[in-house]
């Protein structure tokens, strides 16, 4: 049985100043209810424009947006219940009062009136995001990660059906980010909220999303589950967004013993084993500390590769090593 859809676009186009290289072109997408769909693409590819179209913030030049199969009106024509059900969280904290407390900021998301209702809902939202203990603190004094929790609590206070997150974890440090991501996944599961996420962070995209939609120059070029797009990307563009990899020309690939039939070879860092066959022909150029592993940049005849090394502190810049490439991908120019 296919999943119930909550938002759909049929052939939507939005260009700015009539320039086809801006905005989005002829996009048809189906957003399943209660899942996390991530929109990915290089900078300027149209991700934010698509979010704005999906939330009724801007009007398509052509095509339609449907929410529960009903045409979604434009917000500027008057807010409706449909708009209240779709909330957007961006990173700029535009709607927040820096001098007011967390409690006041989150509570401001509710309609005025019934105090008991406000206390109950605000307490619930703050607990949900694990920030109840901070409720008296001024918003402006919080860390980036705490601010983001408050922003999401405010967005969730009215129990929207769709939560749109535009680069939500940008200002959040790594530990805090993992916790916040986990909490959002939990809320999605428990509440059945639909999340549409825009992010540049591959780790975030792969761990959070149920479905990835890849856009390039305003068009959808590939889509599928994180596992599918990571392990068998159709496009070099997708691989470069999602994977820590080295991209080689046919001539460079030949240095690695690979005969390329299609022109471009991509080798994932984790597909290179160190200490493999042959003599030690590769030189370590950089050792990047990554915590429980290192990333090495190695070079031979002006070909550079990224390699994962779990045997920490074994190599230094200038060390020599041999490698075995266990797997590689080939892309033709027409698919890049
Ligand atoms: N209001 C606007 N007026 C003019 N051009 C715009 C406007 N909004 C977006 N664009 C253009 O449309 C294209 C897509 O922009 P958009 O912000 O959607 O990209 P993005 O993928 O979200 O980029 P980023 O990852 O850098 O945030 C860009 O070329 C951008 O300059």
Annotation keywords:
2 domains, Rossmann fold, six-stranded mixed beta sheet, ABC transporter ATP-binding protein, single chain, nucleotide-binding, alpha+beta, binds adenosine-5'-triphosphate, transport, ATP-binding, four-stranded antiparallel beta sheet, 336 residues, 19 strands, OB fold (Dihydrolipoamide Acetyltransferase, E2P), P-loop_NTPase
Share of helix among residues? 25-40%
CATH architectural label of the largest domain: 3-Layer(aba) Sandwich
Count of individual helical segments = 10
**Structural class label:** alpha+beta
Biggest sheet architecture: 6 strands, mixed
Shape label: globular
Proportion of β residues? 25-35%
Bound molecules: adenosine-5'-triphosphate
> Nearest-angstrom radius of gyration?
23 Å
The pLDDT mean sits at: 91
Question: Element order, helices and strands?
Answer: EEEHEEHEHHHEHEHEEHHEHEEEEEEEE
Q: Give the low-pLDDT segments.
A: none
CATH superfamily of the largest domain: P-loop containing nucleotide triphosphate hydrolases
CATH topology of the largest domain: Rossmann fold
Number of domains: 2
Summarize the structure in words:
InterPro entries: AAA+_ATPase, ABC_SmlMolc_Importer, ABC_transporter-like_ATP-bd, ABC_transporter-like_CS, P-loop_NTPase. The chain is an alpha+beta fold and 336 residues long. The chain is 26% helix and 33% strand. Strands 6-7-8-3-9-10 form a six-stranded mixed beta sheet, sandwiched between helices. It has a four-stranded antiparallel beta sheet with strand order 2-1-4-5, covered by helices on one side. It starts with a strand and ends with a strand. The structure holds adenosine-5'-triphosphate. The site of adenosine-5'-triphosphate (ATP) has 11 residues, from strand 2 and helix 1. Adenosine-5'-triphosphate binds at residues 16, 22-23, 41, 43-49.
